[in-house]
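Incident log, support desk, overnight shift.

02:14 A customer reports that sequence design results differ from what the structure should imply. Their input is reproduced verbatim below. On-call engineer (initials T.W.) acknowledged and began investigating.
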């Protein structure tokens, strides 16, 4: 006897896939944000105190974080469309 306790929609449902993708993006966003915070702390909380190489790395991290953020927002719109029609 097999134990099939997962709901039917968990077997490759587009919504489940989107939620899992959102979770991955959220974890990536948090990791990038933490790395940015650590880098800023190393230079007394200000990018102005960073040498050029550190500043370039900081900007690269910020661009990646922004890109992940926009991907998260796009998935949010798919998962939770506005109910303006009501």
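02:41 Re-run completed on a clean worker. Output:
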């Amino acid at each position: 006897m097999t134990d099939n306790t997962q709901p039917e929609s968990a077997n490759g449902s587009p919504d489940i896939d989107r939620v899992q993708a959102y979770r991955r993006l959220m974890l990536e966003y948090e990791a990038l944000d933490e790395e940015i915070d650590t880098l800023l702390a190393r230079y007394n909380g200000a990018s102005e105190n960073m040498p050029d190489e550190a500043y370039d790395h900081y900007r690269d991290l910020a661009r990646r974080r922004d890109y992940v953020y926009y991907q998260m927002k796009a998935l949010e719109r798919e998962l939770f469309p506005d109910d303006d029609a009501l």
